[in-house]
Design a protein that fits this description.
Keywords: Lipid transport, Lipid-binding, Transport. The protein has 417 residues and is α+β, with helices and mostly antiparallel strands. Helix content is 22%, strand content 38%. It contains 9 helices and 24 strands. Strand 18 and strand 19 (299-304) form a beta hairpin.
Length: 417
């Protein structure tokens, strides 16, 4: 159940009341989340970021996993497209996909993004980008998933000088866009991605389509990369892992990287889990400069082919240590489309394990979306994203460009540890 400590509630100078709530679990551990209310009952629910310590998996795991999985098998067939499959709240943990995408950028123990721009030469900058790309992976939780964002949903958070803004620019199919900028370091991130899930009988594979761009503006360099896929295995051994190939390229420096995530076998019976292997090479000659090897939940090393020197380019302890839960810094500035507002009632219901209320809340949101869709169709109106210009082609898929040069500071911030 969710415990409310009324004595700890405080009213600040803006008339906002903040409560600390926690989830009591059998282990005696507590999952804290921040609920911010104002006089007009605007509610913002923020939960701590996913980490490697395992606490999140304990707190978020819904009961009766085997029964829930059995119910899924009755409703889907091998080869089924799960893009628009609606999970009941029992299968959700209290975050939207937009929040999960954002956390990969703004929730990090060490500032690996700034290092990409600060490196003196193109090779060091490229290897820093490779390390940063590995740091954007987060441990998935078997048996539960984040919410599918509603059309027009946004997520806006700042960490120091890095301002991050996400928007759900399409619902059918689901497409998310991200724009992040750091004016001090002259860094810009632009993502546009679509998740497509397929059921294969003993597993579900979610392909993350679309490209991610990292621009080091002061260096005149653009790095393009993709994301690994998410592989969920039900049989013979349940588990979840990132898998597939990632390519990172920088035309300006003439360097590329090929990384392979996860086990080699499709069912994950052979090979090392959470592994990453690959190489960094010259685009023109295909000459390998470095070999990359390790595990994204531990360390990743880079071996210089010429000298044989081995160095650690990624350490998960640095990435996942001291992660702080975002807090509301300016409640009046929080948009009604903010993920932490849109899903606040559902998130609180899930945290308190009030599944009837969770079901009602989720159904109400879905019905509201259907109502808005019917209204647009009756008027012949087309949805236009607020923060991105969107293009689509059957060959190239979805692409987007931000409408603003710089992302403004957000009303929700990540405290610096």
């Amino acid at each position: 159940m969710v415990l409310l400590n009324a004595e700890a509630a405080q009213i600040n100078e803006k008339g906002e009341t903040r409560y600390k709530l926690g989830l009591a679990v059998e282990t005696g551990e507590r999952e804290e989340l921040l609920v911010t209310r104002s006089k007009d009952e605007t509610k913002v629910v923020l939960t701590r970021p996913l980490s490697l310590d395992g606490d999140s998996e304990v707190d978020y795991r819904a009961p009766n996993l085997i029964q829930r999985l059995s119910s899924l098998f009755k409703n889907v067939r091998p080869g089924s497209d799960l893009t628009h499959f609606k999970l009941p709240p029992l299968f959700n943990f209290p975050k939207s996909h937009l929040q999960c995408y954002g956390e990969t950028v703004y929730c990090i123990g060490s500032d690996m993004l700034s290092r990409c721009s600060l490196a003196d030469n193109s090779v060091d900058r490229f290897t820093s980008v490779v390390a940063w790309s590995i740091s954007t992976l987060r441990p998935p939780i078997f048996g539960v998933a984040p919410y599918n964002p509603i059309l027009g949903e946004t997520h806006h958070v700042s960490r120091a000088n890095l301002n991050v803004l996400l928007e759900q620019i399409s619902h059918h199919p689901p497409v998310s866009a991200l724009h992040a900028t750091d004016e001090e370091q002259n860094i810009e991130l632009i993502w546009c991605q679509q998740c497509v899930s397929k059921f294969h009988g003993a597993s579900v594979e979610t392909e993350v389509r679309g490209k991610r761009q990292l621009k080091l503006l002061s260096r005149g360099e653009t790095y393009e990369m993709n994301s690994p896929n998410l592989l969920i295995r039900f049989l013979p051994i349940p588990g979840v892992d990132w898998a597939g190939n990632v390519r990172i390229r920088c035309p300006e420096s003439g360097l590329e990287a090929e990384l392979r995530y996860g086990p080699k076998s499709f069912l994950g019976l052979r090979g090392s889990h959470k592994s990453v292997k690959g190489k960094i090479y010259e685009t023109s000659t295909r000459r390998t400069l470095f070999e990359v090897n390790g595990h994204w939940d531990r360390t990743v090393t880079m071996k210089d082919i010429n000298s044989g020197k081995l160095s650690i380019i990624y350490n998960a302890k640095d990435v996942f240590s001291g992660l702080e839960t975002p807090v509301v810094n300016d409640l009046q500035g929080v948009r009604s489309s903010e993920s932490a507002v849109v899903w606040s009632e559902l998130s609180q219901a899930i945290m308190s394990q009030d599944w009837e209320k969770a079901k009602e809340s989720k159904n109400a949101l879905e019905e509201k979306q259907r109502e808005l869709l019917r209204e647009r169709e009756s008027k012949g109106a087309t949805w236009v994203p607020q923060h991105f210009c969107v293009t689509y082609s059957k060959d190239g898929g979805w692409d987007c460009s931000p409408t603003q040069q710089w992302v403004p500071p957000a009303p929700i911030v990540v405290p610096l540890s």
